[in-house]
What does this fold into?
Amino acid sequence: MALVPELVPRLTEAGLEVAVQSGAGELAGFFDDGYAAKGARLEAEVLDKADILLKVQPPTIEEISHMKEDSVLICFLQPYTNATAIRALAARQITAFSMELMPRITRAQPMDALSAMSTVAGYKAVLVAASRLPRFFPLLMTAAGTVTPARVFVIGAGVAGLQAIGTAKRLGAVVEAYDTRPAVKEQVESLGAKFAELGLAAKDAEDKSGYAKAQSEDFYQKQQEMMSKYVASADVVIPTALVPGQRAPILITEEMVRGMRPGSVILDLAAEQGGNCALTEPGREIVRHGVVIIGPMNLPSTIPFQASEMYARTVTNYLAHLLKDGGLHLDLEDELTRGPLVTHRGEVVHEIVKARLCSENSTP
Ligand code: NAD
It folds into this structure.
């Protein structure tokens, strides 16, 4: 849910009327009477009434056709892969903000929905992998013998990766991790995990926002070679490596999967961006060469209560930033307003998204 009951008063106190689609929060544990008690109106349909629409997933073309012209939309828009919807939003004169495009500046931290969802995904990834593994995670000394701890290898130690490392440590596993950004080593070690020294120096590892930059094919090939022994000795591998706006790099080849012990688990957190493992099938759990390979789509939705609370806070914080004196005030000079803005006044205004659409148009 993009709004939870406790946040309704924040919007009404700012001068807005709040309408919630009846029943929309039920599966996440937020019921109609909870919204009503906080001052929201329940409606069977909200798309055609909202001046400002808060949503989780991008609207479908059908939904866009029901939305009010000149309205404002705030949601995850999947801006790099959602060309048809983005064109439709522009054509309907909708001002659409994409939560994925929030700039990484200190002011924007309370609005950082991607980081919030990565926290949820990193935690749940470990629980899912642990439940599929035919072994314990912790070291156990019992009368029936000693159980050795599971080994977990995390590739990519950003927000999701660090959360996965912390969760796997708390469950008692021995954890190793690697990231191309050198700054990460200290964070990995502070969680009690070992940083895998691959002897590789990534060129220009990160951009000014702290995101990883893409590396050459040659680099990725060397990385695969150097990581082989870490992957082979792990019981669970959790790859999370992403480069914004691009397909996730392939870091685990079929050969590397073949080198793993049967019963091991790969939980590919990069599945939504194509996957870090060559064999990952996004949205499916498969077994190849005796290894369970899971490619979850939208793990945060499996912890819907707190994922909704966290997402709703980021969205509400962002909406509060856009409001002034009970109305919307779009200062397009402000990078916090401008950064996530994708469509406005009938145009696609985000430079990178626009460039993608143009290059698609020119592809024969
Ligand atoms: P992300 O989800 O885009 O990527 C996940 C991780 O994959 C990153 O750590 C990246 O370096 C890593 N990666 C990419 N290619 C790799 C490869 N070939 N091998 C191994 N790892 C690879 O990133 P994220 O988790 O959203 O954020 C990354 C960092 O940005 C965070 O750790 C944090 O330091 C910073 N950050 C800053 C702000 C802010 O300033 N507001 C907010 C959130 C995150």
